Amino acid sequence: MNNDVAFHMEDLSNELKLMLALLSNDEGEDLTFELQELLRTADWDRFIELARHHRVFPSLNRKLQELKSADIPTFVSTMFHRDYYRNTLQMLGLSGEMEQLAKTFSDEGIRTLFLKGPVIAADLYGDVSLRTSCDLDLLIPLKELEQAESLLLNLGYEKDDYIVSVLNDWKWRHHHTTFIHPVKRTKVELHWRLNPAPSKEPSFNELWSRKRKSSLISRSIYYLGREDLFLFLVSHGARHGWSRLRWLLDIKQLVNQKLDWPGLVKLLKKHSYLHIGGQSLHLAARLLSVPLREDMKPLLIGRKADWLAEDAMFYVHRMVNLHTDPIPEEVGRYHKRYLFSLLTPRQKMTFIASFLYPYPEDADTLPLPKPLHFLYFPLRPFLWAWRKTRKQALS
Fold first, then answer.
1. Which residues of 274-308 are buried (b: 16+ CB within 10 A; e: fewer)?
2. pTM here?
C-alpha cells in the first residue's frame, strides 16, 4: 500500500522536519540530501525545545551520536546527552519503585497490570533509557481500588483529590486517580479503566488473561499483551491529539514487532477503535515513514481514519500541552470538537445522554442531603439553565 495520505506538511518548521527526519531514519540508512540541508540550517535552540516538548530526546540523542555530523554544534550534543543521562536516572528510579509496588500489591493479592513506564520502554525500545516517563500507570480491578489506595497511603503516597463526584459518576466519567510521594516525588496513576467513558474496552479479566510478564527485573511484573497494548496506546494518543510525538514513536516501535493483525483487527472492531487504529497508522506512515502493509489494510479502509489523521495535524503544527492550565482558548475549543469527532455515532449518543446525569456543579448550586441526591436528575435542566443565565448576567 502507498503512504498517500494528503497531510498539510509544507508549513512545518524546519526544526520539526529535522526531528521527524531523524526519527524516521532507521539505523544504517545513509543521510539524504534533505536531512543534510536541515542539519546545516537548523535553529538548534528551537530544535532542543521541540525535542523536550515531544519527549523524544532519548531517541534523538542516539540518532545524533550515530550521525557524527560536523553540522551538529557541541552544545547540542552536550545538552542532549545531559537530558539523556537525567532521564536514565529517572527511569531507573521508576523501575525500583515499580518493583516495590508490584511486590506490595502482589503480597495483598491484588492483580496489577503496568500500562506504561519502564516495562513499555524495555519492551518497545529494548532499553529503559530510550523512552521518557514521569509516572507509573497501574491498572487494577475496580473492586480492589479502595484496598490499593490504602496500600499507597501506607507507603507514604498522598492522594490528589481532584475528582469531585455525585451519585458515583466518577466510576465512568474518570478512569484513574493520582497519588504523589512527597519525598520520592514519584507519581502513580491508579487506573480502573483504560480510558474514560463513553469508550468501550476489554474487561480487566480479559486483559489479565492475555498479559505478558516483563523480564526487566526478577520479580513478576505484568503488562498488556501486544494487541491490547496497541489498543491502549492508540486510544491514549488519539485522546491527547498525538500532541507529543513520543506516543507516535511508540506505535512505530510496536508495529515493528510481531503483531497478530487479524486478531488485532477483531479486537479493535469489537471495541470500536478501528478508525483510531487507522488514524495512528496514517500518522506514523506520513510523519515517521512507517510502511503501510497489506495486513494493516482493514484499519485503513474508509475515510474516517484519514480525516482524523488530518485533524491531529493541528497539534503537530503547534506545541500543545493539554496537561497544563490555562489551555489557550483556541486550542480548548478545537480539542472539544476533536474529541467528539473521535466517537462513533453510538458513543456520541451516549456522550450527549450523559449530560442528563447530575454533575458535581449541581450539588454546589443546590446542596441537598445525600438521601435526596436522586432529585438532581429531574432538577438538572433547571440548575444548568440557572447557572448559564447567571454566568451571562455576570459577564
1. bbbbbbbbbbbbbbbbbebeeebebbbeeebbbeb
2. 0.94
